[in-house]
Amino acid sequence: MVTDPVGDFLTQIKNAAYRKVVEVCVPYSKMKDSIAQVLKGEGYLTDVVKEDNRLRVVLTFRRRRAIISDIKNVSRPGLRIYRPTKRLPSPLGGAGISIISTSKGVMSNREAKRLGLGGEVLGEVW
Known about the structure:
Number of strands: 10
CATH topology of the largest domain: Ribosomal Protein S8, Chain: A, domain 1
Largest sheet: 5 strands, antiparallel
Shape: globular
Oligomer: single chain
Number of helices: 3
Protein backbone atom coordinates (compact mmCIF):
# COMPACT_ATOMS: atom_id res chain seq x y z
CA MET A 1 0.00 0.00 0.00
CA VAL A 2 1.33 3.43 -0.98
CA THR A 3 1.24 5.96 1.86
CA ASP A 4 2.44 8.93 -0.23
CA PRO A 5 0.90 8.76 -3.73
CA VAL A 6 2.24 12.16 -4.81
CA GLY A 7 5.78 11.30 -3.71
CA ASP A 8 5.53 7.92 -5.41
CA PHE A 9 4.33 9.60 -8.65
CA LEU A 10 7.21 12.10 -8.63
CA THR A 11 9.69 9.29 -7.93
CA GLN A 12 8.35 7.24 -10.85
CA ILE A 13 8.79 10.20 -13.20
CA LYS A 14 12.32 10.82 -11.89
CA ASN A 15 13.27 7.14 -12.33
CA ALA A 16 11.80 7.08 -15.86
CA ALA A 17 13.85 10.15 -16.82
CA TYR A 18 16.99 8.61 -15.34
CA ARG A 19 16.40 5.30 -17.19
CA LYS A 20 15.40 7.12 -20.43
CA VAL A 21 11.93 5.55 -20.42
CA VAL A 22 9.57 7.54 -22.65
CA GLU A 23 6.26 6.94 -20.83
CA VAL A 24 5.02 6.02 -17.37
CA CYS A 25 1.61 4.60 -16.40
CA VAL A 26 0.36 5.22 -12.86
CA PRO A 27 -2.98 4.80 -11.07
CA TYR A 28 -5.21 7.84 -11.75
CA SER A 29 -6.04 10.51 -9.19
CA LYS A 30 -7.06 14.14 -9.62
CA MET A 31 -3.96 15.32 -7.75
CA LYS A 32 -1.59 13.35 -10.00
CA ASP A 33 -3.44 14.60 -13.07
CA SER A 34 -3.12 18.21 -11.85
CA ILE A 35 0.61 17.78 -11.20
CA ALA A 36 1.08 16.20 -14.63
CA GLN A 37 -0.80 19.08 -16.29
CA VAL A 38 1.51 21.61 -14.57
CA LEU A 39 4.57 19.66 -15.76
CA LYS A 40 3.11 19.51 -19.27
CA GLY A 41 2.44 23.26 -19.25
CA GLU A 42 6.06 23.92 -18.25
CA GLY A 43 7.38 21.64 -21.02
CA TYR A 44 8.67 18.76 -18.89
CA LEU A 45 6.03 16.34 -20.25
CA THR A 46 4.91 15.92 -23.85
CA ASP A 47 1.53 14.30 -23.23
CA VAL A 48 -0.81 13.33 -20.37
CA VAL A 49 -3.64 10.89 -21.11
CA LYS A 50 -6.24 9.36 -18.79
CA GLU A 51 -7.01 5.79 -19.89
CA ASP A 52 -9.58 3.86 -17.83
CA ASN A 53 -8.29 4.23 -14.27
CA ARG A 54 -4.67 4.91 -15.28
CA LEU A 55 -2.74 8.05 -16.08
CA ARG A 56 -0.18 7.77 -18.89
CA VAL A 57 2.47 10.50 -18.96
CA VAL A 58 4.99 10.90 -21.80
CA LEU A 59 8.28 12.57 -20.90
CA THR A 60 9.89 15.22 -23.10
CA PHE A 61 13.29 14.32 -24.54
CA ARG A 62 15.81 16.48 -26.36
CA ARG A 63 18.85 14.87 -28.01
CA ARG A 64 17.99 11.55 -26.35
CA ARG A 65 18.10 13.11 -22.88
CA ALA A 66 15.10 13.82 -20.69
CA ILE A 67 14.31 17.48 -20.02
CA ILE A 68 13.83 16.53 -16.36
CA SER A 69 17.23 16.17 -14.72
CA ASP A 70 15.90 15.73 -11.17
CA ILE A 71 12.75 15.88 -9.07
CA LYS A 72 12.65 16.47 -5.34
CA ASN A 73 9.63 15.55 -3.22
CA VAL A 74 9.17 18.33 -0.64
CA SER A 75 5.96 17.69 1.33
CA ARG A 76 5.18 14.27 2.67
CA PRO A 77 2.34 12.87 4.80
CA GLY A 78 4.29 13.26 8.05
CA LEU A 79 5.57 16.75 7.32
CA ARG A 80 3.64 19.17 5.13
CA ILE A 81 5.58 22.22 3.93
CA TYR A 82 3.53 25.43 3.46
CA ARG A 83 4.94 28.70 2.16
CA PRO A 84 3.48 32.20 1.69
CA THR A 85 3.82 33.90 -1.69
CA LYS A 86 7.06 35.72 -0.88
CA ARG A 87 8.80 32.54 0.34
CA LEU A 88 7.90 30.16 -2.53
CA PRO A 89 11.04 28.26 -3.59
CA SER A 90 12.60 28.77 -7.04
CA PRO A 91 14.90 25.77 -7.69
CA LEU A 92 18.27 26.48 -9.33
CA GLY A 93 17.71 30.22 -9.18
CA GLY A 94 14.57 30.07 -11.33
CA ALA A 95 15.78 27.48 -13.88
CA GLY A 96 13.45 24.89 -12.34
CA ILE A 97 9.93 25.04 -10.95
CA SER A 98 8.17 24.24 -7.70
CA ILE A 99 4.77 22.56 -7.78
CA ILE A 100 2.41 24.32 -5.37
CA SER A 101 -1.03 23.24 -4.18
CA THR A 102 -3.03 26.44 -3.60
CA SER A 103 -6.63 27.30 -2.86
CA LYS A 104 -7.05 27.87 -6.63
CA GLY A 105 -5.61 24.46 -7.58
CA VAL A 106 -2.20 22.99 -8.34
CA MET A 107 0.19 25.32 -10.19
CA SER A 108 3.84 26.23 -10.66
CA ASN A 109 5.59 28.67 -8.34
CA ARG A 110 5.67 31.27 -11.15
CA GLU A 111 1.90 31.13 -11.59
CA ALA A 112 1.31 31.20 -7.81
CA LYS A 113 3.55 34.27 -7.42
CA ARG A 114 1.77 36.00 -10.31
CA LEU A 115 -1.60 35.38 -8.62
CA GLY A 116 -0.28 36.25 -5.15
CA LEU A 117 -1.00 32.81 -3.71
CA GLY A 118 0.92 30.66 -1.26
CA GLY A 119 0.29 27.03 -0.41
CA GLU A 120 1.74 23.57 0.11
CA VAL A 121 4.99 22.90 -1.75
CA LEU A 122 4.53 19.43 -3.28
CA GLY A 123 7.81 19.12 -5.15
CA GLU A 124 10.58 20.76 -7.14
CA VAL A 125 11.55 19.94 -10.73
CA TRP A 126 14.62 20.98 -12.73
